[in-house]
Fold this sequence. Notes:
By secondary structure, this protein is mainly alpha-helical. Helices cover 68% and strands 5% of the residues.
Amino acid sequence: MFVGLRICEATVFRLDYLSCVLTVASTILIGKKRWEGWIVAGINSLVICVIGLHTAQTGFIPANLFCLVLYAWNLRGWIKRPAISVARETGPLEVPRASDTCAADLDMRSVEASIGG
């Protein structure tokens, strides 16, 4: 069955192909822990709702509206992430030890000269 949106007499916009591209893009972005993936997934859900309207498959509409709510909830959680979870993802901060930094920087001749040796 043809699923498209006729813009003018010669141009037909294929919503099913658009949905396919948006699905792949949102999956890749979310897999890379990018919050923009939730936005792309939301746009895809809207496209699927339009497809459901055009093909009289109204079951797509409530399912994708539910998905939109989940995407908004997840987006809110990812953007307002507490600082402690960011620290857990990046790992502990490494503080250089005094023996690592000072010993390499000391010039023994200047130390001996300063103490009169």
